[in-house]
C-alpha cells in the first residue's frame, strides 16, 4: 500500500539532523562496534558500550516529544537502530557467553522468531517494518536491557526467560495490530488504540462511499 501523503509531507518538512535522529544514527552506526569488543572478549567494555547505546534509545523518544521533533522518518530510523543494536548484542553475547546461549537456545529462538514474524507480516502488508512504539514494547525493551545486563553479570537466568516471554507477547500484539490496521501507522500505544483507529478508518471510508 502506498504511503499516505501526510507521511511524505512530514518527512520532507522535518530536518534529518534533529537531536533524536542523531541519537538514532549513533545507535545504528555504533552498535556493530559491540561485535569487535566481543571478539576481543572484553566483557566489561561490552557492557558499558551497550548501556551507552541503550540510553540513546531511551533519550531519543523523550527528546522527540520534548522538542516536538517527532516524524515518520524518525520512527522508522529508531526501529532500524533498535534492530542494529539488538542483533549486535545477540551476536556479541554469543561470543562472550556461548555456553549459556547453547543452554537457552530454544528460548532465544522463540524470542527472535516472534520478532521476525512482526517484520514479515509488516513487509507483506505494508512493504515496511511496523513501528508502533507500543507501551508494551517500551516496557519490554527496558526489561530486555536488564536481561542483557543480567547475562553479562551472571545473574539468575530466570530473569532473561521472563523477558523473552514479554518479548513474545509484545511481538504478537504487534502482529495483531498489523493485521487489524489497513494502513501503515506509527506511534500507537496499544492494541485497543489500533482497533479504535480501524473503526474510525472504516467509518470515514463508508462516509466517502455514500457521498460519491
TrEMBL record:
Keywords from the UniProt entry: Membrane, Transferase, Transmembrane, Transmembrane helix
GO terms of biological process kind: phospholipid biosynthetic process
Annotated source species: Rubinisphaera italica
One Pfam assignment: CDP-OH_P_transf
GO cellular component: membrane
GO molecular function, one term: phosphotransferase activity, for other substituted phosphate groups
Keyword Aminoacyl-tRNA synthetase carried by entry: no
Record protein name field: CDP-alcohol phosphatidyltransferase
Highest rank taxon of the organism: Bacteria
